[in-house]
Input
Amino acid sequence: MPVSDIFAARGEAEFRRLESLALDSVGEQSAVIATGGGTPCHAGNLGAMRGRGLVVALGVSLDTARHRIGDPSTRPLLARPEDEIAALYRDRLPIYRQAHAVVSTEGKTAEDVAREVADLAARAPALGDLLPDSILVALGERTCPVVIRPGALAQLGMLVRAALGDEVRQVALVTDSNVDPLHGDPAARALASAGLDVVQAVVPAGEPAKSVDSFAALMSILVEAGLDRSSAVVALGGGVVGDLAGFAAATLYRGIPCIQVPTTLVAMIDSAIGGKTGINLDAGKNLVGAFHQPRLVLADPELLATLPARERRAALGELFKYALLDGEELYGEVDALALQLASEDDAPPPVSLAGVIRRSAGIKAAIVSADERERGGERALLNLGHTVGHAIEAAAGYGTLLHGEAVALGLLAACRVSAALGLAEPALESRVAASVARAGLATDIDHWLRPDVLARVGVDKKRTGSRIGFIAVARPGDCRVVPLELSRLREILAPAG
Output
């Protein structure tokens, strides 16, 4: 029966029941199953699909979807006002981003998309039983698996071999002076167990290590250790190590493979994923760098047990960013974790944290897959809270504030600007401030909106002339890039009087 007839005769609830039964009947045979857009959104279907095989969501904008549908009369769920259709689209996006991979279909032929899906299917078996705990940054030949599983560090050697093949025999394990005593030797043993020759390089801990001098020193270590074009770099640490070691891999001999093994929550959900690498200048953060996709990201939540309480709290700044990008469900989950993550206790990470990491990493993977180099605007959404956050971080002096602490303040500034532009309710800033406070993070945004901070807002990679692409948030799950004159942005943020 046509879907519209089933809806008319039996209602949507009965259609969804029949749909789930059909999905359950697939069995274990090798097949490609094309579902409707609502299938993963009901009755726990998505979990069943992920457990059975590779799940790929085909990404499309709402405007393109409308164009492809043509006559909507055979689509029962489109017999509603335009604002309700837009809301349905926004509500489903967070679910689609929980697939193993999201392949953008914008501007591509069916053959192009099929080829990309087939390529993902060919890569998935290398993950073996790790597939249910993985997501894939879908970039064709540069597709990057992101594995999120407690205890997975012990499998690092096997996974590196699967990602790089047999041609790589030597790896440089780059870590910092804080992480090396905790995880350096276990990581080196895991790599050596796979027959890899391991060179260990330890850089100073903290944001100051992302400097031109530290970069030059690391490059000299790698060259003197005998790395060549068949070698690879394994970055074991937080965002600083990931950015610095990733940039070294991007530039050494004009590029060698990189593996990211994040040890901080911020790195697991954000900086280790997407291929952005770089170092800082006095003029601003991350002004020198390169896009260099890792071959693998391995996030082991058990490594977070050694994370200092301040680092855990700071990570909530980035987690709330992803919650605002995603929607109410993830926002509620992060808000519920805030008190536990902010605690000074040395308790192990909550079990539910692995799922939140996977959700957040899936958001970034989907956005990067569609807009790897910030050319279409979608990847710019990941800078929510960062325009003002980076300015605060730079004005305070790198290392004074942790990145996540500055981002949390930047989120409050984004809420304020969004309200001033008429996109958000004024109450949004208060709501986010209450969540940030529960996480033990500062909410004194007015203290930071001083001339030296506002002057640095213009030192931003998203600036074009006198304008900036500011990331505004209307509500959780509804964020957008807004072209904004720098003078207007400073006017909104400048303290009254």
